[in-house]
């Protein structure tokens, strides 16, 4: 380690990782940035770098974007030659093989947005909200070959505001992760690894489109929590006569009826019955159209109390 602290290789890809990279750069020398390869984006399928790669280019930081890590001798040489004392991963998106993990002297530290061993996997922020957690947090862990199974180095809880969606929670956790990783890097020799309790492990798999489909047979709170969790993607989707509707601004409200039954249409929104209670919907976006106030949509399509939205039953759960 140099007198100014460890030299860091940073592995990350999405915008979520940018504050973490910036926080590390303010205190330590970043000798290599590793991001996912550029991908086609938009209708024109323009090849676009992930946000972390774009930031590295902007800052003239050494950048690598390997398509694979396992068996990639050229990349291993790049990491070794960077002189990194430690590597940090933040939403990088690839499993790291042992041959890569063993290169830096202090190995790899991962910033994971849950209180491990809870919510291991790629979508801890989303599933914490879907499951109605009132508290989540950030874990700095020593990366091993498993999926978020390494020992815990630092951990800090974060209360979840009742109105936060995945967007607000991601911002709060990104800020927390930025602070904690600087704390960890400042005291690498003093960190005490604590093994995770496997018996307490839960999982947060990558979301699929169906995770955003409304289950009207759930309670109103469950429906709203799911909507909070899928706010960034895939968003909240309901069906009427088989046609998809994107719903926005959901909240729990009073009311009772058959699940999926429209109970009321006012300027405040559309009230729809759940298994227990009701949900107020403020905006509706029909397919291939812009989002509009729910009451405007209801009036334009003749939706009245007694109309029932389609009941969709999940196959995944």
TrEMBL record:
Residues 7-185 form the Formyl transferase N-terminal domain. Residues 207-300 form the Formyl transferase C-terminal domain. Keywords: Protein biosynthesis, Transferase. CDD domains: FMT_core_Met-tRNA-FMT_N (cd08646), Met_tRNA_FMT_C (cd08704). It comes from the Bacteria. Signal peptide: none annotated. PROSITE patterns: GART. Its EC number is 2.1.2.9. InterPro entries: Fmt (IPR005794), Formyl_trans_C (IPR005793), Formyl_transf_N (IPR002376), Formyl_transf_N_sf (IPR036477), Formyl_transferase-like_C_sf (IPR011034), GART_AS (IPR001555), Met-tRNA-FMT_C (IPR044135), Met-tRNA-FMT_N (IPR041711). The keyword Protein transport does not apply. It catalyses: L-methionyl-tRNA(fMet) + (6R)-10-formyltetrahydrofolate = N-formyl-L-methionyl-tRNA(fMet) + (6S)-5,6,7,8-tetrahydrofolate + H(+). (6S)-5,6,7,8-tetrahydrofolate binds at residues 114-117. Residues 291-317 are annotated as: Disordered. It holds the Pfam family Formyl_trans_C. It is an enzyme of class 2 (transferase). SUPFAM superfamilies: FMT C-terminal domain-like (SSF50486), Formyltransferase (SSF53328). HAMAP family: Formyl_trans. Attaches a formyl group to the free amino group of methionyl-tRNA(fMet). The formyl group appears to play a dual role in the initiator identity of N-formylmethionyl-tRNA by promoting its recognition by IF2 and preventing the misappropriation of this tRNA by the elongation apparatus. Belongs to the Fmt family. This is Methionyl-tRNA formyltransferase. It comes from Deinococcus sedimenti.
């Amino acid at each position: 380690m140099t007198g100014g602290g460890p030299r860091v290789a940073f592995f990350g890809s999405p915008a979520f990782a940018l504050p973490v990279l910036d926080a590390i750069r303010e205190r330590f020398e970043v000798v290599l940035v590793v991001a996912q390869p550029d991908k086609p984006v938009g209708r024109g399928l323009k090849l676009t770098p992930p946000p972390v790669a774009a930031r590295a280019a902007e800052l003239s930081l050494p950048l690598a974007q390997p398509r694979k890590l396992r068996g990639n001798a050229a990349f291993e040489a790049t990491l070794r030659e960077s002189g990194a004392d430690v590597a940090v991963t933040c939403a990088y998106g690839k499993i790291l093989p042992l041959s890569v993990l063993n290169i830096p002297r202090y190995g790899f530290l991962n910033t994971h947005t849950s209180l491990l061993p809870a919510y291991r996997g790629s979508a801890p922020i989303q599933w914490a909200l879907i499951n109605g957690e009132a508290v989540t947090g950030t874990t700095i862990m020593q990366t091993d070959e498993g999926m978020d199974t390494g020992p815990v180095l630092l951990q800090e809880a974060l209360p979840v505001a009742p109105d936060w969606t995945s967007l607000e929670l991601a911002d709060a956790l990104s800020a927390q992760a930025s602070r904690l990783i600087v704390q960890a890097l400042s005291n690498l020799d003093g960190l005490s690894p604590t093994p995770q309790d496997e018996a307490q492990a839960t999982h947060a798999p990558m979301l699929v489109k169906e995770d955003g489909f409304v289950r009207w047979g759930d309670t109103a709170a469950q429906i709203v929590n799911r909507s909070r969790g899928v706010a960034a993607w895939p968003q909240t989707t309901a069906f009427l006569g088989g046609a998809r509707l994107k719903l926005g601004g959901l909240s729990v409200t009073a009311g009772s009826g058959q699940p999926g039954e429209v109970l009321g249409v006012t300027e405040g929104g559309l009230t729809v019955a759940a298994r227990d209670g009701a949900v107020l919907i403020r905006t509706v976006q029909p397919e291939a159209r812009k989002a509009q106030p729910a009451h405007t949509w209801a009036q334009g399509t003749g939706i009245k109390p007694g109309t029932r939205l389609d009941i969709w039953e999940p196959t995944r759960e």
